[in-house]
Amino acid sequence: MVDLIYEPWKTRLLEAAETAGAATANGYGMLVFQAFEAFRLWTGCTPPLDAMWEAGLREGLNG
Question: Residue 56 belongs to what domain range?
Fold first, then answer.
């Protein structure tokens, strides 16, 4: 089950799907990859995907 919302991290839909035994994913991956591609298109430079992923996790989980 995919719910493209990333805030809250785990929606009621994802919780229900997990309870039913489904694999789940939120929208965080899409957010990071959209930011990655937008940065690349606008600047012509390839950003560090791993650093973007980790920074987003730190900010998202602490914010």
Answer: 12-62
Q: How many domains does the chain have?
A: 1
Could you report the per-residue pLDDT of 23-48, keeping only the tens digit for each? 999 999 999 999 999 999 999 999 99
Q: Is residue 6 part of a domain?
A: no
**Rounded Cα distance, 51 and 39, in Å:** 13
| Per-residue three-class SS string for the chain | CECCCCCCCCCHHHHHHHHCCCCCECCHHHHHHHHHHHHHHHHCCCCCHHHHHHHHHHHHHHC
- pTM of the entire predicted model: 0.78
